[in-house]
Amino acid sequence: MNTPDHESTTMNTSPGRTLDATRRTPAEPPAIREPRHVPLAHVVRGGVIEGVHHGSAVVLGADGRVAFQAGDTDVAFYPRSALKPVQAVGLLHAGLPLDGELLSLTAASHSGQRRHLDGVRRILHEAGLTEADLRNVPDLPYGAAERDAWLRDGGRPTRLAQNCSGKHAAMLLTARLRGWSLEDYLHPAHPLQRMIAETVEDLTGQRVARVSVDGCGAPLFSVSLRGLATAAARIASGAMDSPEGRVAAALRAHPDMASGSDRDVARLMRAVPGLIAKDGFEGVQIAALPDGRAVAVKIADGADRARMPVTAAALVHCGIDPGVLTEFATVPVQGGGATVGCLHATDALGPF
Fold first, then answer.
1. Could you tell me if residue 124 is inside a domain?
2. Is 316 a domain residue?
């Protein structure tokens, strides 16, 4: 294949390996039941609590033990796109030959900026494929500004513009290099998805409770919040030459490719040196530091507005200076064109 002249596009062209020889023995899957969430965020207007967002949060210390938790951190749930860094590690195990910005894009819920769309095309070009080979669901760009500009130009939903297209292009490239079928690369029984499932169990340390389908059409694996935090910690603290370390390095070096230049996840990674972070639909967030300290958050009602203030409060338990997190700690509440209150984490997460 011809390699475009771009930074860190390809390396390590070995065909990959299974995890059987090295994977940890996973524990039993988390229970499937109604979560026992607790109030994690208050919406305050004019000094009155107008709304409450329930959820759960867990903080792991550098030793992997739970340093703080609120709510129900051991029940099964779907991490949604917060699982993408784990999926990217699985793709590297399977032989994905990407690093740098294209590996960050593999783990992305991208905004649909030009750099994102061009990056997806580059991955597809590596595989000798086009947008027509993608099997994700057509959609408009995820970023608000990008979506508005797309519609002004008469754009329609496409597979390229959908925020998971980087992951899907990387799946296709991996399948092509391994000689696996392309048409059914999203089927849970496909060898690619089986390797990703092995990686999920290896990094979370627990068996998958249930397999469903994510919004983009890819298999989605149900784990616990504690298991998700464990996976984030193992990626963030991975050796530089390991699949985990490569994904962490890509996210740190290219946070804008993993989300968008104005997205809170990219700003958080830029604000806290060494931090990796990934958001997911339905109010999910992970963040982890190079020494293995990690946070995982789930907002019960899926409200995105509560995700980052709760994450910021949880990160204080990792020893991060609250002053660094100030911009992420609250969301303004507007009334009549003025700020009349804010959304902030509850006392369940401790003082900020």
1. no
2. yes
List the domain range (segments joined by +) for residue 252. Answer: 38-96+185-349
Cα separation of 256 and 116, whole Å? 9
Name the nearest CA neighbour of 214 among 229, 230, 200, 235.
200
Over the stretch 244-281, which tens digit does the pLDDT of each residue have?
Answer: 999 999 999 999 999 999 999 999 999 999 999 999 99
C-alpha span between 68 and 237 (Å, rounded): 19
Phi-psi group of 46: left, alpha or beta (phi > 0 → left; psi -120 to 50 → alpha; rest → beta): left
Q: Into how many domains does the chain fold?
A: 1
- pLDDT, tens digit, 9 for 90 and up, residues 103-137: 999 999 999 999 999 999 999 999 999 999 999 99
Helices (H), the chain: 84-93, 100-106, 114-126, 144-152, 165-178, 191-204, 225-236, 243-253, 255-258, 264-271, 304-316, 326-329
Can you say whether the dihedral through the CA atoms of 75, 21, 85, 16 is positive or negative? Answer: negative
Residue pair 159/137 in contact (Cβ under 8 Å)? The answer is: yes
Query: Does 284 map to a domain?
Result: yes
Average pLDDT in the 1-6 region? Answer: 33
Contacts of 302 (CB under 8 A, 6+ apart): 281, 282, 283
Name, in order, each residue with C-beta under 8 angstroms of 238's C-beta and a sequence gap of 6 or more: 244, 245, 246, 247, 248
Model confidence, pTM: 0.92
CA atoms lying within 13 Å on the CB side of residue 117 = 16
SS3 127: coil
Eight-state DSSP code of residue 182: S
Confirm if 346 and 42 have CB atoms less than 8 A apart: yes
The three-state secondary structure class of 197 is helix
Burial code (b: 16+ CB inside 10 Å, e: under 16) for 139-150 equals bbbbbeebbeeb
Residue with tokens 């030793």: 63
Q: Largest Cα–Cα distance of the chain, in whole Å? A: 62
- Identify the CATH number of the domain in which residue 80 sits: 3.40.710.10
Averaged pLDDT for residues 125-154: 97
Task: For residue 71, tell me if it sits in a domain.
Answer: yes
